Automatic annotation (TrEMBL):
The chain crosses the membrane at residues 12-36, 56-77, 89-106, 118-139, 151-171, 183-200. This is DUF998 domain-containing protein. It comes from Saccharothrix mutabilis subsp. mutabilis. The lineage of its organism: Bacteria, Bacillati, Actinomycetota, Actinomycetes, Pseudonocardiales. The keyword Magnesium does not apply. Keywords: Membrane, Transmembrane, Transmembrane helix. The keyword Transmembrane applies.
Length: 205
């Protein structure tokens, strides 16, 4: 029975890692095709919905990332993480935030805020806060992993910088929203891959 459970956890973990890898391709493609159209310094990743086929491709990225995160949560719970503890809630909020931000797209840069744009913005605030906190708690209370802890701290600091960049932090007249968000996403991906590696070690024991 223990062997079967271990195999199931390994299968779910493989699904999660595949989802993480898959989520990188659509957004990477959009970065390439939108060169000269959107600035990676001032435009957020959400702005790629205004590029040809951008809405669908971003949806694939966000939903693959959400599914992968749920997969990691399932493996963590099956490895002993409390189902109703703060970490489970935080990881759940991260996945829900990604989904909500997909359903409610952002507004075009410079346009008045719409209901959809406001929901998108607050969903982003929730998800960018939740995942670093979840990673930090996991590294402190459940899986002792230095990479997970370091990525969590770095992502938390960058999340604050990203939120501050909405009202300041400019360069050559450009608000640096896009720059800080891309750094933040790179750190969050690093955190998720580091978490997957740490969970893999636990599963293989």
């Amino acid at each position: 029975m223990t062997v079967i459970r271990g195999e199931r956890r390994a299968a779910v973990l493989s699904f999660a890692v595949a989802g993480l890898v898959l989520s990188l391709f659509p957004v990477g493609y959009l970065h390439v095709v939108a060169v000269g159209e959107l600035s990676p310094l001032s435009h957020t990743i959400s702005d790629y919905i205004f590029v040809a086929n951008g809405s669908g491709l971003l949806a694939v990225t966000a939903l693959s990332l959400a599914a992968a995160s749920v997969g990691l949560l399932v493996v963590l719970v099956r490895s002993g993480l409390p189902r109703r503890g703060p970490v489970s809630w935080l990881l759940g909020l991260w996945a829900v935030g990604l989904t909500v931000a997909t359903v409610f797209p952002t507004d075009p840069t410079g346009s008045p805020a719409s209901f959809s744009g406001l929901v998108h913005r607050y969903a982003g605030a929730v998800m960018f806060t939740s995942l670093p906190l979840a990673g930090w708690l996991i590294s402190r209370r459940f899986i002792r992993s230095t990479p997970v802890r370091r990525f969590s701290v770095a992502a938390g600091i960058t999340a604050v910088a990203f939120m501050v960049s909405h009202v300041s932090l400019t360069y050559d007249g450009q608000v640096l929203l896009g720059l800080f968000e891309r750094i933040l996403f790179a750190l969050l991906y690093g955190l998720l891959f580091a978490l997957a590696a740490a969970v893999s070690r636990e599963v293989s024991r």
